């Protein structure tokens, strides 16, 4: 359409504080973000004989506000003769999201009203008339607030001059409050949900030389079944997806040649994935699984101070 818009404005601010007391070093980071987006256009075009195009209309707006505060404290010390680094902290994040949606209803009368000559498809401007947006979901206002509180800790212990053991744990509590106001059906659907999850990782790094090392790591994590800010009431009843990853690899740096490269092998598994019920394709369940295994090679070479070349191969 002649007056289409595809625009985004984002404003962000960040403040960092650092301090030291004895063996402890602390950091605090406060961050904020505000974004406004608008997408207004025709997204669907269908040829209509003898020489016309039938189109739809789409209007989507975002008003998003986000802020977070993260604090952590680190202690570098020794356990007997072994070097040890310990980090612990907490984080709070909050997102407010407003999403307005306006779609044409696709009825014959609406298609005729939005029809344009095939040779002049940008002739019309966006039509804001409510009668062409009838039907459930075609005029909807969505509101969401997501709050996440996290506690985390990690430790790296150098048990020998060449071997380091690493481990970490993180606990998250996420609260979601969401409402959908359908202006056509004159209904408001609201729901709350609460997620709690703990993620861990453990690994080891062995230095073959001062510039090369091998490593192995196992970790687990969780993932919501969909975007939290756009979570549906039906999907909010599902448990979180759970994932596991095992990775082993080799890293080497060759300073004289300006080269760094890595080779890694991995296996990833995830359960509680959304899928179709085999007995009823119209029903969604979250008993699906996904897995992936592969090998990756990556390298970065700097032949001169002004040139760098990098690449990756994955199978």
Description:
The chain has 315 residues and is mainly β. The chain has 1 helix and 15 strands, in the order ββββββαβββββββββ. It has a 12-stranded antiparallel β-sheet, with no helix packed on it. The chain has a 3-stranded antiparallel β-sheet with strand order 3-4-7. The longest helix has 7 residues, at 108-114. 8% of the residues are buried.
The whole-number mean of residue pLDDT values reads 94
- The fraction of residues assigned to DSSP E strands is over 45%
Strand order of the largest sheet: 1-2-5-6-8-9-10-11-12-13-14-15
Q: Tell me the series of helices and strands, N- to C-terminal.
A: EEEEEEHEEEEEEEEE
Number of helical segments with 4 or more residues: 1
pLDDT < 50 runs, ≥5 residues:
none
Percentage of residues assigned to helices: under 10%
Overall outline: elongated
Number of strands: 15
Helix/strand/pairing class, anyone? mainly beta
**Sheet bearing the most strands, described?**
12 strands, antiparallel
Q: What is the alpha-carbon Rg in Å?
A: 27 Å
> What is the chains' assembly state?
single chain
Distance between the termini: 43 Å
What secondary-structure arrangement, pairings included, does this model have?
Elements: E1 5-21, E2 24-41, E3 45-48, E4 52-55, E5 58-79, E6 82-103, H1 108-114, E7 116-117, E8 139-158, E9 163-182, E10 187-209, E11 212-223, E12 241-254, E13 259-277, E14 280-304, E15 307-314
Antiparallel strand pairs: 1-2, 2-5, 3-4, 4-7, 5-6, 6-8, 8-9, 9-10, 10-11, 11-12, 12-13, 13-14, 14-15
């Amino acid at each position: 359409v002649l007056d289409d818009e595809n625009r985004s404005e984002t404003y962000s601010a960040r403040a960092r504080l650092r301090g030291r007391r004895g063996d402890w070093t602390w950091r605090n980071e406060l961050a904020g973000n505000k974004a406004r987006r608008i997408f207004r256009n025709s997204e669907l075009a269908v040829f209509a004989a003898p020489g016309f195009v039938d189109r739809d209309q789409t209007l989507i707006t975002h008003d998003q506000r986000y802020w977070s505060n993260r604090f952590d404290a680190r202690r570098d010390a020794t356990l007997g003769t072994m070097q040890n680094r310990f980090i612990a902290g907490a984080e709070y994040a909050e997102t407010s999201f407003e999403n307005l949606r306006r779609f044409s209803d696709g009825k014959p009368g609406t298609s005729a009203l939005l029809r344009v000559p095939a040779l002049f498809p940008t002739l019309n401007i966006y039509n804001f008339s409510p009668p062409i947006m009838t039907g459930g979901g075609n005029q909807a206002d969505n509101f969401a607030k997501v709050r996440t509180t996290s506690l985390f800790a990690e430790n790296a212990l150098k048990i020998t001059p060449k071997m380091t053991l690493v481990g970490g744990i993180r606990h998250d509590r996420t609260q979601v409050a969401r409402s959908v106001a359908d202006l056509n059906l004159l209904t408001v659907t609201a729901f709350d949900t609460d997620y709690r999850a703990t993620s861990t990782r453990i690994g080891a790094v062995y230095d073959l030389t001062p510039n090369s090392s091998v490593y192995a790591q196992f970790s687990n994590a969780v993932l919501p079944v969909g975007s939290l800010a756009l979570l549906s009431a039906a999907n909010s009843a599902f448990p979180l997806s759970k994932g596991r990853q095992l990775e082993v690899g080799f890293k080497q740096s060759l300073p004289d040649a300006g080269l760094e490269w890595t080779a890694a092998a991995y296996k990833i598994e995830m359960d509680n994935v959304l899928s179709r019920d085999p007995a009823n394709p119209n029903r969604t369940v979250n008993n699906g699984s996904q897995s992936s295994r592969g090998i990756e090679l990556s390298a970065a070479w700097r032949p001169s101070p002004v040139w760098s070349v990098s690449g990756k191969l994955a199978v």
